């Protein structure tokens, strides 16, 4: 009895602990995405494109690291650290395969507010260069990076807390017009912050409400202090950068290696500045001394946590929103999924851990991500290769950047923001699809440039929610359900086969960002369920027919019933009479549904469409512009299907 009891206990014990071990493995794979893609990495197919992309990305990481560190009001060397550690952390925890995390203009601009407020430039005269400093910089510079690292630490803690609270599901409130307007406004702020370097002027740090306008007012008041040499060098750099990058984009299919114009410009400008001694001769501001190596880790100063809460929330929200938009765009383009909550964890750890290594706040940048697209990167290995090259710069090449003119660095920043600035072109699209979305874009942009990126983001979200809440009660809908399957019974000459292939679904609610994803999910579920039911009925009917017609088979119909029949085209009619209003997200999802159905060999027709919906569908991408997909009524759509069916049968008979 004792042995039997022990055996039972061991069986129970193994049953209790085996699922926990499997759950832990699944949890690790879910929270460490690198464990999913790294074992399946194909060296032959992916290593070469990832290596080339990593080299190009390293050039961007170095230049943007130096520039965004200056934008964050800290020494340029800390930008190199910020280009290294966050990229490694995100490669382990992040799900975006083409997302390049590192220094970011918007988060640098936000952290600069805390740095300038707590360690103003006026206190520089009170400190001297300290030989006991960790990286050989003055105490003033160490105090400044301490504040920036604290902003990064607290911002990362906020992001991790949002991951724990599972707030990633609330990202549907961040609509495309709001994100586009916020990033465009923040890019405008970044360009404004670089004006003093482009013109070679000494401009005091100006922040706060309407600071954007005060900066330009100061520039125009002191226009005579512009250094002509810096202005000419800035214009030349911008022209060269834009021209070469456009040529690279134009001929990227014909040339295998893209010209790293940023790197070439940095080398040429640094060499010219060194040979002509521009720093003394013309008074051009240069990057200056870049210390070698990486200092040992140190905890950020916790005594300023309460003073940087506002900036930390701005870094957490703005950095996450901009990064998530890039990750989702990458996932949509390359057909994989991204978990919104996991991205909170990845970016939170990418801010918390590097803050112990003197790093400024980090996030994903549009320019670097676009660079990975254009160079054909496959996985996060490209980012890891770039980290190796950044490490070489930190230990060997960094001091050679002493002579790099700041006006050239500012030009690289401005040109790198092109992707954000050209989002002004979206205004035409929003105007034609939904004028309220156009108004939200404009108002969010104005709030962003008048106040700050986090204020503009908050205003855009609140404004969007308020407008939707105000529009929903006025919606002319009789059903609270998102969609309802209609049973269609009509006396017609159509044959039974065609009737079975037609599916009619009525959309009884407006299509907006709040229910766009659910509309797509519910519709796909109905289609899959109906296809499964039809397949089962077809198998049963084939079995019965074979049993009646072939008496020699003795009722055995498995062989013939299992044979796949010819693929028949199915038809879906969406009754849009309940779509009383819509926004850009809803119309985009409707167009995406049409494309998904087309890939499933299902022809989609839209009935009872308003003129504004038809116009919006054209701007969002009509899935089949050659054939009309919108009809006055369900009967008209059915008549079109029947006429096409009759024509196809007639053509088949004529061929016979």
TrEMBL record:
Keyword field: Anion exchange, Cell membrane, Endosome, Ion transport, Membrane, Transmembrane, Transmembrane helix, Transport
GO molecular function list: chloride channel activity; chloride:bicarbonate antiporter activity
GO biological process, one term: oxalate transport
Domain STAS: 492-641
Membrane topology: Multi-pass membrane protein
Pfam family, one: Sulfate_transp
Catalysed reaction, written as an equation: D-gluconate(in) = D-gluconate(out); hydrogencarbonate(in) + chloride(out) = hydrogencarbonate(out) + chloride(in); thiocyanate(in) = thiocyanate(out); sulfate(in) = sulfate(out)
Membrane-crossing residue ranges in chain numbering: 66-93, 145-165, 203-220, 226-245, 257-284, 304-327, 348-367, 379-397, 402-424, 444-469
GO terms for cellular component: apical plasma membrane; basolateral plasma membrane; lateral plasma membrane; recycling endosome membrane
Record's keyword annotation contains Transmembrane helix: yes
Compartments where found: Apical cell membrane; Basolateral cell membrane; Lateral cell membrane; Recycling endosome membrane
Listed InterPro entries: SLC26A/SulP_dom, SLC26A/SulP_fam, STAS_dom, STAS_dom_sf
CDD domains associated with the record: STAS_SulP_like_sulfate_transporter
Membership in a protein family: Belongs to the SLC26A/SulP transporter (TC 2.A.53) family.
Protein name: Anion exchange transporter
Gene: SLC26A7
């Amino acid at each position: 009895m004792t042995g039997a009891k022990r055996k039972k206990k061991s069986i129970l014990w193994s049953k209790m602990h085996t699922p926990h071990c499997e759950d832990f493995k699944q949890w690790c794979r879910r929270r460490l995405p690198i464990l999913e893609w790294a074992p399946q990495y194909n060296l032959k197919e992916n290593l070469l494109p990832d290596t080339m992309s990593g080299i190009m990305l390293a050039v961007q990481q170095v230049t943007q690291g130096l520039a965004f560190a200056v934008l964050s009001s800290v020494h340029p060397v800390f930008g190199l650290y910020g280009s290294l550690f966050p990229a490694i952390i995100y490669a382990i925890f992040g799900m975006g395969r083409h997302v390049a995390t590192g220094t970011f203009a918007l988060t640098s601009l936000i952290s600069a507010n805390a740095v300038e407020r707590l360690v103003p430039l006026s206190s520089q005269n009170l400190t001297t260069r300290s030989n006991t400093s960790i990286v050989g910089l003055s105490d003033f510079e160490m105090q400044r990076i301490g504040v920036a690292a604290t902003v990064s630490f607290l911002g990362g803690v906020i992001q991790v807390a949002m991951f724990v609270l599972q707030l990633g599901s609330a990202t549907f409130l961040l609509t495309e017009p709001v994100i586009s307007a916020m990033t465009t406004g923040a890019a405008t702020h970044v360009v404004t912050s670089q004006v003093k370097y482009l013109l070679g002027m000494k401009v005091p740090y100006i922040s706060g409400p309407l600071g954007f306008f005060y900066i330009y007012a100061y520039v125009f008041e002191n226009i005579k202090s512009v250094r002509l040499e810096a202005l000419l060098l800035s214009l030349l750099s911008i022209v060269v950068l834009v021209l070469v990058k456009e040529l690279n984009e134009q001929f990227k299919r014909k040339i295998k290696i893209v010209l790293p114009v940023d790197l070439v410009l940095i080398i040429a400008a640094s060499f010219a500045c060194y040979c002509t001694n521009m720093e003394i001769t013309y008074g051009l501001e240069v990057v200056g001394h870049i210390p070698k190596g990486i200092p040992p880790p140190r905890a950020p100063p916790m005594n300023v946590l309460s003073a940087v809460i506002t900036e930390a929330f701005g870094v957490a929200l703005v950095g996450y929103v901009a990064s998530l938009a890039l990750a989702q765009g990458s996932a949509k383009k390359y057909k994989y999924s991204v978990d919104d909550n996991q991205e909170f964890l990845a970016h939170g750890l990418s801010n918390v851990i590097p803050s112990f290594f003197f790093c400024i706040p980090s996030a994903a940048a549009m320019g670097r991500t676009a660079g990975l697209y254009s160079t054909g990167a496959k996985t996060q290995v490209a980012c890891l290769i770039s980290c190796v090259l950044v490490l070489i710069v930190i230990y060997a090449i960094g001091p050679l950047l002493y002579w790099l003119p700041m006006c050239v660095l500012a030009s690289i920043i401005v040109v790198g923001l092109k992707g954000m600035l050209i989002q002004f072109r979206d205004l035409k699209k929003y105007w034609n699809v939904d004028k309220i979305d156009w108004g939200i874009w404009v108002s969010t942009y104005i709030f962003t440039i008048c106040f700050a990126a986090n204020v503009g983001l908050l205003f855009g979200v609140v404004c969007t929610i308020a407008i939707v809440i105000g529009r929903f009660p006025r919606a002319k809908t009789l059903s609270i359900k998102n969609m309802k399957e209609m049973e269609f019974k009509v006396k017609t000459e159509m044959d039974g086969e065609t009737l079975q292939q037609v599916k009619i679904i009525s959309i009884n609610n407006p299509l907006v960002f709040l229910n766009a994803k659910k509309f797509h999910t519910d519709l796909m579920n109905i289609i899959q369920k109906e296809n499964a039911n039809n397949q089962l009925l077809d198998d049963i009917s084939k079995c019965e027919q074979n049993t009646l017609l072939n008496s020699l088979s003795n009722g055995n119909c498995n062989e013939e019933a299992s044979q796949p029949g010819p693929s028949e085209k199915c038809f879906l009619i969406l009754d849009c009479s309940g779509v009383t209003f819509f926004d850009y997200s809803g119309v985009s999802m409707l167009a995406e549904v049409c494309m998904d159905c087309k890939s499933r060999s299902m022809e989609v027709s839209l009935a009872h469409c308003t003129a504004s919906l038809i116009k919006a569908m054209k701007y969002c991408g009509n899935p089949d512009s050659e054939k009309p997909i919108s009809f006055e009524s369900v009967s008209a759509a059915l008549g079109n299907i029947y006429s096409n069916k009759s024509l196809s049968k007639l053509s088949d008979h004529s061929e016979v």
